[in-house]
Amino acid sequence: MSSRFPFKTAVLLCLLVMILGWGVLRSTIRTSGETELSKHDTRQVEARKPVIVDQLPVDWEQPVEIVTFHNRPRFPLSMQKGDDYLLIVNNLQWDPGKAEKIRLSIVRDPAQQTASGCYFQNAPMFYEKQSDQVRPVGAAPLSSETNRETETQTDKPAPEDSRSFYLFVTDGDLSDKKQYTRVTGKLIKHSPRVAVYLDEQQQPTELAAGLIDEVINLLEERVLDHLAQHCGSLTDVDDNGRFTVLLSPWLGKLQGGKTSINGFVRPSDFREKVAAPFSNHCDMLYLNSALKPGQELFDLLSHEVTHAVVSSIRIRQEQYLGHMLLDEEDWLNEGIAHIMEPGFTNRDYRISEFYRQPEAYPLIVPDYYRARLWRNHGCRGAVNLFLNWCNELDPRQRFTWEFTHHPLTGVDKMEDLTEVPFAELFRQWSLSLASQALQSRFAYAGLSEHTYHLYCGRFLLGGPALRSWDLSGDDQYTLKISSTASAFIHLRADQKQDVPTTIRVRGFPGMQLTLVRIPRSEPQTSLSAELVTTSDPEQKARNSVEIRLRCHHQAQSEVALIGVEYVGPGLSRSDRRPRHFNTEDLPETLPSTTASQIQISRQETISTESDDVSEFRLGVPLATLKRDNTSQSLLVKAVVRTQAGQQLVVQTEIDLPASSGSRLAEVETAPRQ
Predict the structure, then answer these.
(1) How far apart are CA 332 and CA 383, in angstroms?
(2) Rounded to an integer, what distance in angstroms lies between the CA atom of residue 65 and that of residue 83?
């Protein structure tokens, strides 16, 4: 027996070493430096879940996590009279070019009215307050760490009268030298910390009045010091003591004339070892020479100089660490730049687009250009809201400083900064978005204790759109969800009786499910729209369409405001043209004259046993629509003021015809709420 014991012990020890080694290997599969994705690589944010736990009672007054063991679970859902649920579906797969479908169905078989492949538990909550999601950053001063330039004009030599710069102007390969053009800039004005050059193909008299002075004053007096205080200082790459600004008309005709942008910063310009034309070896900013003074310029400078600060800090970290760091991933680089903007001119329409269709826009996009999501408004709105939420979680108000100085990037950075696994961080952010939708949409007890902001810049907001599934009428529901995106599905049923329901899910790898119960004591507010057919030759001659709006709202409440905006892929802020109409000022009929803008009239309000129905008419001109955007639609929002003083926001979207000559079917569109 003594001779066998050492042998058995050795075998057990070997097995133990193998198990431990496998665990270590699994834990190191994703290293901190791994941020690039191949074209065919699909990754998934790790969700750290226990495999087996005891079933514990859950508090339905709090969010409930559905912990799944596979992609096809089913779960019972007791829908008591007057209750609805919000099902939040997160796609934790990590591939910006991929989307997944979730298929939900009602289980009719009495033998399957039990949970399978999942269990319920309350989702942990770690944020303390409801965020308005769009408030500008307001961190405490970091005077001890601010690296402000204190030299005077006489301490530095005058900048060069002329400099050459390379610009990528085509729609070709970024690594092809032939896709770059050489621009000569002439010095037109400088200050102690700024030098402004103008593309030689233009004259200063062609610029907007006061533009050059405004650029210098904003940078000197507001932008540079604010960013140095909250994010960090710029690196003087070319050692000339000034931050360089190049104004050029090329920015109005990039990608072979297909794209116009207001400004940009190129991270490679801050790298001295990158050869020309891929780097200008200069701390600089490119601006469109068509810009004008105003809030948009202030927001733009704050945004773009933040990019310059991020690149500067990473270059200094490389010198300190002795090895090269990856550039900040695009989604985080754009996100931190957005939250440093003092106003909303560069983000209000992007937030509105994200709220319109949250399931369509991925959050994690390491390279926007290669993912074909460059300047995608919905993606930019998503990361603006996400990073602003993370910023507000930090009670020390040092998030922006620690973010820009953190050497990692991507998911690894966010997990290290927040000390929360990204899967859980993503769930909590989704819950904070859901709370906005619930506050703006439903009137139930206790709601008046919370407040939210109706407007972001020029746009009326109501939180992310809810997709509605009527369990009483539809046995199945299908929705496509992009990677690292969230869908908010409103589960509703017959409100006159209890409805015991079991739901079967056909999901996908990386699916994350969370339930929020919505107790309601008032009739639901809703908005619908339909195109109105007409044989009126005058309306056809006006090249316009008429839309009928119907808003259902609780008795003794009123529709106080109607907001409309054009929506569609790639529409700019000016193209969306948001308009708001106070209903008390509306006429009773639409004007008969030709109009270049949307017009609206107030029709009758009908009281029923359960609610009131207010009707409106919209006249929408088609001549001014962008014909290159075939999928353009109109997003309509209604603000309902309840008797208790709550302001609810409901919305619907309707596709617009390609031309006034198209035959308009009098069929009500399904409300996209």
Answers:
(1) 7
(2) 18
pLDDT of residue 534: 67
The mean pLDDT of 212-225, rounded to a whole number, is 98
From residue 404, give the alpha-carbon distance in Å to each of 413, 570, 612. 10, 29, 52
Give residue-wise pLDDT tens across range 146-163.
444 444 445 678 899 999
Element (DSSP H or E) covering residue 551: strand 544-553
Longest dimension (CA), the chain: 106
User: E strands along 191-229, which residues?
Assistant: 194-199
Rounded mean pLDDT of 394-419?
94
8 Å CB contact between 547 and 530? yes
**How far apart are the C-alpha atoms of 23 and 351, rounded to whole Å?**
42
CB 341 within 8 A of CB 136: yes
Reply yes or no on whether the pLDDT at 497 is more than 80.
no
Query: 23 — phi, psi (to 5°)?
Result: -65, -45
Cβ–Cβ under 8 Å, residues 135 and 461? no
Find the mean pLDDT for residues 629-655. 86
Extract the tokens encoding 316: 């200094």
Of 238, 186, 240, 247, the C-alpha closest to 216 is: 247
How far, in Å, are 315, 354, 417, 455 from residue 320 at the CA level? 9, 39, 21, 44
Structure tokens at 434: 């859901």
Q: Which residues contact 541 (CB under 8 A, 6 or more apart)?
A: none
The DSSP-derived string for 433-483 is HHHHHHHHH---TTGGG----SEETTEE--SSPPEEEETTT-SEEEEEEET
- pTM equals 0.85
- Top mean-pLDDT range of 337-351, 429-443, 607-621: 337-351
Tokens of 429: 């952010």
Share of the chain above pLDDT 90, in %: 55
Q: How far is it, in rounded angstroms, from Cα 134 to Cα 17?
A: 51
Q: Long-range contact list for 469-477, CB < 8 A, 24+ apart?
A: 469/104, 471/79, 471/106, 471/499, 471/501, 472/499, 475/105, 475/106, 475/108, 476/103, 476/104, 476/105, 476/106, 477/103, 477/104, 477/105
**Cβ-proximal residues to 10 (8 Å cutoff; 6+ apart), any chain:** none
Within 142-219, strands assigned E span 162-168, 180-190, 194-199
Mapped onto helix, strand or coil, the DSSP state of residue 623 is coil
Name residue, tokens 């009268």: 161
